[in-house]
Inverse folding.
């Protein structure tokens, strides 16, 4: 029994007719196509990212496994909101230093006289038998008409005791005034102003002066450059004293100031006194 199916003759040299595709051949074709697509994808992605756009805000890089990763380059320029801004603190610190230096300069460098102490409140309104009105009174506390004991001619800035003029004393204040504040005008200028002040303002009771049997002279005390700068001294004192160094009693000032030690001694007879009475 013969088979009716004819097999192709390969010996004839003519090309055989193509066989119809089988299921196996179709599977192999699809497998080859999938492999070609899978191999082409990394190359396509690499080619797509090789030249990024110039205005792109991202940079692209490959990680260790070959995959792409991206990050926003603007994050490197952003400041951490938790980090404090030190500029206001620096400005505030500089302002505090400037104010401190200004205050130090104002207190240490400014050229102003020291504040004069209150004179009236410190005086004894009802002196005792010794007649003392104020002990150890500084020169800037002396008033015109005050009689002073314990006066130190060698140190005109030293304090003295203000006493009633009916007691023996060393000198009497006939006038005082303060020079204006500012820079020291010079020794000659200060001396000239002091002499003019004492000559123009010293009002002496001529009858009281003529009644004594010793010579009187006016002593002028004024600031020096040292006391001007160091102590704020601006005081001019015009003092009446015996030329021979004896003590005296009584009032020699025509119009003594209110609250001066000459108020209660207007009727005291002027004249000499014993140095031991002070």
């Amino acid at each position: 029994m013969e088979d009716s199916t004819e097999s192709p003759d390969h010996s004839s040299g003519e090309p055989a007719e193509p066989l119809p595709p089988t299921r196996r051949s179709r599977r192999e074709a699809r497998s080859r196509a999938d492999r070609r697509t899978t191999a082409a994808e990394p190359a396509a992605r690499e080619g797509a990212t090789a030249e990024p756009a110039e205005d792109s805000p991202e940079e692209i890089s490959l990680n260790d496994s070959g995959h792409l990763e991206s990050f926003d380059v603007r994050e490197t320029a952003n400041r951490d909101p938790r980090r404090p801004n030190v500029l206001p603190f620096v400005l505030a610190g500089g302002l505090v230093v400037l104010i401190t230096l200004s205050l130090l300069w104002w207190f240490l460098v400014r050229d102003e006289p020291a504040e004069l102490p209150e004179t009236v409140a410190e005086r004894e309104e009802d002196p005792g038998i010794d007649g003392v009105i104020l002990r150890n009174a500084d020169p800037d506390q002396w008033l015109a008409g005050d009689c002073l004991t314990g006066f130190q001619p060698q140190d005109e800035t030293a304090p003295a005791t203000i006493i009633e003029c009916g007691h023996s004393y060393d000198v009497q204040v006939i006038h005082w005034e303060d020079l204006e504040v500012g820079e020291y005008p010079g020794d000659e200028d200060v001396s000239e102003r002091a002499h003019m002040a004492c000559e123009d303002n010293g009002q002496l009771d001529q009858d009281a002066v003529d009644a004594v049997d010793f010579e009187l002279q006016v002593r002028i005390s004024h600031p020096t450059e040292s006391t001007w700068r160091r102590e704020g001294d601006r005081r001019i004192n015009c003092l009446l004293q015996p030329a021979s160094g004896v003590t005296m009693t009584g009032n020699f000032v025509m119009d003594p100031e209110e609250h001066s030690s000459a108020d209660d001694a207007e009727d005291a007879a002027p004249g000499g006194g014993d140095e031991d009475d002070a």
Observations:
- The chain is about 25% helix and 20% strand.
